[in-house]
Amino acid sequence: MKNFLKLIVALIGLLLLAAPALRAEAPPAPPAGHAEHGRGPGGPGQMMKRAAQELGLNADQQAKWEAINQQEKAAADAIRNDNTIAPEDKRAKLREANKPFADQRRAVLNPEQQKKFDEMRKAGPRGPKKDKKDK
Fold first, then answer.
1. pLDDT digits (tens, 9 = 90+) for 73-124
2. How far is CA 39 from the centre of its chain?
């Protein structure tokens, strides 16, 4: 009986020690729509979909944009994976690499869409900038 009591006390002690680990939750999954590289819901894929929708691209234009997106992604991945570029210089290099692809996308558009595309690029990826007074 003495050994049985010791066994019960030991099991209860182990359960108390293990309780925090048993209650620990897995880290939350990123919300839907988050892009790779930790970019969030405004990542490149989502921005391209939004731009295509706002510009009213037809099927042919969408196909051409998708091909441009694939080329741009390959170029961006090459920059991200290039260990000879200092991490702090990669962002500038990525922006520089984006320019010819933006020009290619613009060339696919009709004049009305080009005007809207230029306005969207001027406003930036998060939309028009607001004055601090407006807040």
1. 999 999 999 989 888 888 889 888 888 988 998 899 999 988 988 888 888 7
2. 3
Name the DSSP class of 51. Answer: H
Cα–Cα distance measured from residue 99 to residue 105, given in angstroms and rounded to the nearest whole number: 10
The residue type at 129: K
**CA dihedral sign of residues 41, 44, 47, 53:** negative
Amino acid at 53: Q
- The span from the CA of 63 to the CA of 85, in Å, is 32
Q: Give 40's strand partners.
A: 35
Tokens 């558009």 belong to residue? 109
Backbone angles phi, psi at 40, to 5 degrees: 80, -170
Residue with tokens 């969207």: 120
Banded pLDDT at 44 (limits 50, 70, 90): low
